Amino acid sequence: MTVQEIAQELEAWAHPSAAEGYDNVGLLVGLPDMEVTGVLINLDMTEAVVDEAIAKGLNMVVAHHPIWFGKRNRLNGEDYVSRTIMKAVKHDIALYAIHTNLDNVRTGVNQRICDQIGLDEVRFLQPKPASEGALGSGMIGKLSQPMTKVEFLDHIKSAFQSGGIRYADAPLDQIETVAVCGGSGSFLTQAALALGADAFVTADITYHKFFDNEEKILLLDIGHYESEQFTSNLLYEFLSQKFVNFAVQLSDTHTNPVRYH
């Protein structure tokens, strides 16, 4: 099994062309024709994750988040990004990122978030133009039974094992229609309002962006890691089904840098 063969399956599911323009996806480190001893899956590709791959004898890391986005002028160990890249190269560890392309496909990250919440009748929150419904940002669906605001907040906190939820309130008696976007999704608040969502579950909302709820929608920031953590399970299930009897392992390394006091 080669890096390229694994990449081809991932790209048939979520092609790099579906990624946002700022993103850095695909094979970031390594040679396409390298034989793969096994794949380690994590939300992130950090130095600790590469160390885990080395310890387990696995020479490919597949992660949701790329280790770098923009141009880098040097690799000299001055920061965790360069140390991770250098270690991966030194130990022949391939690094593959499947980021916003996996966010934007129908069976990707946001569908898994909907599954975790328990939403039905799911559709894209903001379909991509000219994609014929195949691509889009965020998703929206309905709970099988309406919940009060407190019940919904408790449900989300439990479902995503969140240390805390920041939210903007709204005078609603119940929550039924729910919009979601993994990671930094505040750019979709107006789309959630336009489609009549009672709540919008996302992350990385800045102070002024909370006002965008117009006191009409419960706007939740559950944490970036928390919102996307089940992406690792999604990738594990996909690769395990595609490559039966091949070493695909979920990482034991917890990468969330955020702590709650």
Walk me through this protein's architecture.
The structure is a single chain. The chain starts with a helix and ends in an 11-residue tail after the last strand. The longest helix is centred in the C-terminal third of the chain and has 12 residues, at 231-242. It has helices spanning 3-13, 47-56, 80-90, 100-103, 109-117, 149-159, 189-194, 207-210, 224-228, 231-242, and strands at 26-29, 39-42, 60-63, 94-97, 119-127, 136-147, 166-168, 175-184, 199-203, 218-221, 248-250. It is globular and about 55 Å long. The strands form two sheets. The chain has a six-stranded mixed beta sheet with strand order 5-6-8-9-10-7. Strands 1-4-3-2-11 form a five-stranded mixed beta sheet, with helices on both faces. The chain is built from ten helices and eleven strands. Strand 9 (199-203), helix 8 (207-210) and strand 10 (218-221) form a beta-alpha-beta unit. It has 261 residues and is of the alpha/beta class. The mean pLDDT is 97. Helix 2 runs parallel beside helix 3 (80-90).
